[in-house]
Structures are given as structure tokens and as C-alpha cells.
Amino acid sequence: MAAAHRSINFLVIFILSLFSLALAQDENQFIYHGFSETKLDLDGIAKIHSNGLLQLTNTSELKIGHAFYPFPFKFNISSPQSLSFSTTFVFGIVSKTLNFGGNGMSFFILPSKNMREAVAGPYLGLFNLSNNGLPTNHILAVELDTVQSSEVKDINGNHVGVDVNSLQSNESAAATYFSNKEGKNIGLQLAGGDPIQIWIDYNGADKFLNVTLAPLGIPKPNRPLLSTPIDLSKILLDSMYVGLSASTGTRVSDQYILGWSFNRSGQAQNLDISKLPQSPSPPKNGSNKVLDRATVVSLIATVVVLITIGAAVYIVRKKKYEEVNEDWEKEYGPHRISYKNLYKATKGFKDKELIGQGGFGKVYRGALPPSNLQIAVKRVTHDSVGGMRQFVAEIVLMRRLRHRNLLLKTGKATTSTDVFAFGAFMLEVACGRRPMAMEPGEKDLVDWVTDFLKRGAIIDASDPRLEGIYVEKEMELVLKLGLYCSDSNPETRPSMKQVIQYLDGGTMLPNTPPGSIVIGEFTTRNEPPDNVVSFHSLVGSSSYTTTTNDSNLTVGR
Ligand SMILES: *[C@@H]1O[C@H](CO)[C@@H](O)[C@H](O)[C@H]1NC(C)=O
Ligand SMILES: *[C@@H]1O[C@H](CO)[C@@H](O)[C@H](O)[C@H]1NC(C)=O
Ligand SMILES: *[C@@H]1O[C@H](CO)[C@@H](O)[C@H](O)[C@H]1NC(C)=O
Ligand SMILES: *[C@@H]1O[C@H](CO)[C@@H](O)[C@H](O)[C@H]1NC(C)=O
Ligand SMILES: *[C@@H]1O[C@H](CO)[C@@H](O)[C@H](O)[C@H]1NC(C)=O
Ligand SMILES: *[C@@H]1O[C@H](CO)[C@@H](O)[C@H](O)[C@H]1NC(C)=O
Ligand SMILES: *[C@@H]1O[C@H](CO)[C@@H](O)[C@H](O)[C@H]1NC(C)=O
Asked: Could you say which of 283, 303, 330 is where a domain stops?
């Protein structure tokens, strides 16, 4: 008895559900707020969550999801006037990664639920490579495309299109909605994560297919985004299925449907937002902000331009501050101020900073960062090979070596050698002559200036190119101080501190710098120890040989 009763119950329920399905079909309409209680046919990875959310794809690559209303609708194509339909649904496309949601979704009307041959990616689970574009497809689709595919001539990566038998849209438009309030179109991000409502209406009388979008909660805009002339009687068959599809490609999104209503015989009922399942959370602001392809392209372009500019600036700066490490530098030791710092110190070797023209090049005033130490910089082009080598040889010899006139007791460079070098440098700048004799019969600069001093006309030793444009007293001071610093006896040279006091005018220079009279008359000193650089001036041939315990150097002409 009990068993029979139960089977009658089952039968009643079975007949009732058949009846209600038949009813729905007869009425040519359905409305779903969430999909928990529905019997949609799903394929691919489509699934219905317990809260009623229909998920067509997740974020796995190259996936498809379809949801079909299980029964076909009757479209009487011999009566084109009656071929109207209306549908609206709410969708959410949520992409995790910054702006690369994909591929998109579609609403479709087609003759068969067998879509196994359709492919993912840009084909949106609607077509494959061999049937795309064939009139035998009998497919009408409205695509919500979030990836620009050049193969199907997409206009951008955020558009809506009307497709007839092909993914190459008959008409498409960038996603926007018409704001009734503001009276203008407002941009919309399909893959922005926020739920969006779409309305698709076809009227067999005027044969226009209208597509309208708006963010969920905003009433249907007065103006459709697309209003495409189409004669559905030439496309559809008498019996057609309606459904929704979505696909992912290399770009992926979670693609959801929250609610859906469809009507074959009148305006689709609007959805009640309060009955819709909780929409999936849109990506967080900031890091997960969704950008469309155009933005990404312009971002990439900006980055490329910036990198190019950066590289160009780097190359120019590198070139500007390029250091030429001459082979002689290795031999003379590591003391160097970077060219960049010298460049900065002299404000880029500006003419304004030019203070003289020495033997082989121009001399500039400068302030050496970071202490702003006042310096004079002699610029010698490294192309003037002989001149360069000679100049450097002089400087190095002055700095480190011992001249027969020292132009040393310990054999080590001391502060007095620096003072000597400074003296020679002052003379060189003031006189515009090289400090050391290079030609047979030429006098060393110190001897040369001393001659003027002896004649009581030291001022005449000044560089004629200065054309007398200087304060005579200062020139005299520099020349005399130069000689003083170059005194043959290191002990009688002033200290650097004294030099500064003289230059500042705080202390008067002694009238006859001690030892200056004997400059030029050789003061023989003890032979240097073996490991000390020595310097010989060979009468008539002018070559310099220095010898240290670890290097052997010959500089000459
Ligand atoms: C997507 O769904 C398929 C089928 O349910 C599953 O195998 C896959 O792991 C899912 N991918 C993600 C990223 O959740
Ligand atoms: C289809 O339309 C034609 C023309 O209006 C009509 O004669 C025919 O009965 C219709 N067929 C059905 C099945 O409704
Ligand atoms: C494309 O789809 C059609 C229709 O489903 C099928 O007949 C055909 O074999 C498919 N072609 C390829 C290359 O998958
Ligand atoms: C637009 O649709 C018609 C059918 O109404 C079709 O024949 C035509 O090829 C389509 N045009 C494009 C550009 O897809
Ligand atoms: C489509 O839009 C046009 C222009 O707004 C309108 O005239 C027409 O009635 C609309 N058709 C449908 C079916 O909504
Ligand atoms: C379909 O249209 C008819 C006529 O306008 C209306 O009475 C009915 O409520 C609609 N049904 C749905 C589900 O939209
Ligand atoms: C995200 O940004 C929008 C506008 O930029 C703002 O209205 C919204 O409150 C922000 N949401 C969060 C969670 O910060």
C-alpha cells in the first residue's frame, strides 16, 4: 500500500513538472532571479552555485560554458511580422589579474544544443574556424567582448556586437550606456566586475534589433547602444534554442549570470534586483583595476617611450661624462677626479668659466662638489696625443717625482711637493706657457719668470693673450707667489695655508722670496734611493725617464 502510494505521489509530481515545463514553453517566456530552481542545460564548465549564481566560466584558460533553455522556441519564419522577442539579463565579468579579463560572453539563438565543436577564446563558444561565417549556422548572437581580436575585426577590447552567423559583427559599439539623467553616453567596463544589465529587443514589424546596457540598478536607458536592422526571418529556423555562452582564452575571467528573463510574445519582464543572488565581488580598487586594451596599449607605449627617453638620456649623459682612461694613467697611478665632477665643477666647461689658455689647453675656474672647493681645471683634448702625454708627464712629474731642482730629501712626495706643483700651475696659468722646457734652448717656466723678476718687470711674464686685462697687483702677486712656491728648497716654500693667506691679501709676500734668486742654478742633492722615481733632463734631446721599482716609463717626443 505504502509503496503504491509513494509511486502515485511520484507520478503526480512528474506529471505536474512536465505540465509546468510545457506551460512555460507554451507561454514562450521565462524569468529567473538566480538559477537554483531552474533546469537549464549546462555544458562545458558552466555550473550553478548554491546561492543561485550561474557561472559560465572560471579563470581556467581556453574554457567554454553554455547554458540553454532546455526547450526550443517556435519562431514562425513564414510570418516575419510575428518574429519578435525580448530578453534581459544581468551579468558580471570578474577578472583577477590587472585588466586582462577574457574572453567574453554572448546571448544566442541557434538551432541545436550540440555545441561541442565550438571553440573557446575569441570564438566565444559559438563557432569554430571552419563554420565561422557560414549562412548554414542560423545563429544570431549578441556578444559582450572583452578582448580585441583582429582576426574577427573587433573594434576594441570592451565592446558589444550583433553577430549573424559569424563572429565578425554586423554592428558593434564600445560599451557605453545612455544616461537618461545626464542626457549623454557614459563609458562602461564590461569586465569591471560590477553587475551590468543588458536588454535585447527585436521587433519583427520594423526589423530592428536593439541592444541596451546599463550598470545594475539604473533603469533601462531611453536610447539603445545598438539599433541594428536585421531580418530574422532570413536567419532563424522555425525551432530555435536560446542560451548564454562564455569563453576564456589566454585571458580569463569568472563570468556570471545573476538573473535572466526572456519573452517570445511581448516585452521581457524587468528583473527584481532584490531577488538576484549576491553578485561576485568586483576586483579591488588600485592593483586590480580593470583597464581596457586601449589603456594597456597606451600604458605600454608610455613605458616604451619612457624607457627610450631614459636610455637616450643615459647614453647622452654617459657620452657627456665619458671617461677616457688613457694607457698612461695606469702607469701614473690612480689619482683622478671623475670627468663628471669636473664637468659639473666648471658648469660644463662654459666659456664664462674660462680663466686662461695654457700650454696645451684651456683653463677653467670651477667649484668641486660637494665642498665647493675652488679649483682650476685644465682641459686637454685626449686627441692631441703628444701634447697630452707631455702635459700629463709634467703634472705627474711635478706631483710625484723629484726634479734635479727639487723642482726632495726623503724621496717621498710631501705637502711641499704639492705646493711646488701649485706654484708651477699658477705660473702656467698666469703666463700661458708650459712649465717645462720641451725644445732645445727653451727655458723652464720658473727660470723664465725668474728672468723677468730679475729685470724688475715680472708683470711682463703674464700671458700676452690676457691683453693686460687684470689687476696688476694681483698678477704680480700670482707670479711672485708662483715662484715662491717653486723654490728649489722645499723647506723655504710656503705652506698651503700661507699661500691662501697671501692670495687673500691678508699677508704680504716677502719682497724677495727666499731662494728665488738661485732658481735655475742647480742645487745638487744626494742621489735618490733606488726605489724612488728619478728624473733626468738630457741636454739637447729632451726626454724624460722615470724609474720606479715596479714600473719603467719613458715619455718623450
Ligand atoms: C574551473 O572549472 C574546472 C571544471 O570545474 C576546474 O577543473 C578548474 O579547476 C576550475 N579552475 C579554476 C581556476 O577554478
Ligand atoms: C506561420 O505563419 C503563417 C503566416 O502567417 C501561418 O499561415 C502559419 O499558420 C503559421 N504557422 C504556425 C505553426 O503558427
Ligand atoms: C565546426 O563546427 C561544425 C558544426 O558544429 C562541425 O560540423 C565541424 O566539424 C567543426 N569543424 C572543426 C574544424 O572543428
Ligand atoms: C550582416 O547580416 C546579414 C544578414 O542579415 C549578413 O548577410 C551579412 O553578411 C552580415 N554582414 C556582416 C558584415 O557580417
Ligand atoms: C529600437 O530603438 C529604436 C530607436 O530608439 C526605437 O525606435 C525602436 O522602437 C526600438 N525597438 C525595440 C524593439 O525596442
Ligand atoms: C511576456 O510578455 C507578456 C505580454 O506582454 C507578459 O504578459 C508577460 O509577463 C511577459 N513574460 C515575461 C516572462 O517577460
Ligand atoms: C573604488 O573606486 C570608486 C571610484 O573610483 C569608488 O567610488 C569606490 O568607493 C571605491 N571602492 C573601494 C572599495 O575603495
From this structure: 283
Give every CB contact of residue 385 below 8 A, 6+ residues apart in sequence.
Answer: none
Distance (Å, rounded) from C-alpha 376 to C-alpha 356? 10
227 lines ligand 5 (CB under 6 A): yes
Summarised one tens digit per residue, pLDDT across range 442-451 is 788 888 899 9
Express each pLDDT in 477-520 by its tens digit: 999 999 998 887 878 888 888 888 888 887 888 765 544 444 33
Using alpha carbons only, give the angle 309, 313, 314 rounded to the nearest 5 degrees: 115
The residue contributing the CA closest to ligand 3 atom 14 is 117
Based on the domain organization, do 358 and 446 belong to the same domain? yes
State whether residue 339 is helix, strand or coil: helix
Contacts of 101 (CB under 8 A, 6+ apart): 93, 94, 95, 146, 147, 190, 191, 251, 252, 253, 290
Q: CATH code at 387?
A: 3.30.200.20
User: In angstroms, rounded to a whole number, what is the distance separating the alpha carbons of residues 264 and 24?
Assistant: 11
Q: Would you tell me how many other CB atoms lie within 10 Å of the CB of residue 557?
A: 10
Q: Structural domain tally of the chain? A: 2
Distance from the CA of 198 to the center of ligand 7, in angstroms?
A: 23
Q: Could you identify the atom of ligand 6 that is nearest to the CA of residue 261?
A: 13
Q: Is 269 in the pocket of ligand 6 (CB under 6 A)?
A: yes
Question: Is residue 68 located within the same domain as residue 161?
Answer: yes
Looking up cell 583582429, which residue turns up? 150
Is residue 105 a contact partner of residue 143, using CB atoms and an 8 Å limit?
yes
Helical packing angle, 385-400 and 415-431, nearest 10°: 140
Contact 349, 379 (CB under 8 A): yes
Cell numbers describing residue 131: 563554420
Query: What's the rounded Cα separation, in Å, for the pair 557 and 554?
Result: 10
What's the CA-to-centroid distance between 234 and ligand 5, angstroms?
A: 20
Residue nearest (by alpha carbon) to ligand 3 atom 6:
117
What is the distance in angstroms between the CA of the first residue and the CA of the last residue of the chain?
A: 129
189 closest CA partner among 203, 174, 204, 202: 174
Distance from C-alpha of 253 to C-alpha of 191, rounded to nearest angstrom: 8
For 430-464, what is each residue's pLDDT tens digit?
998 877 776 777 788 888 899 999 888 899 999 88
How far apart CA 239 and CA 84 sit, in angstroms, is 14
381 vs 39, 337, 439, 467, 540, CA distance in Å?
Answer: 88, 16, 22, 25, 28
In a domain, 306, yes or no: no
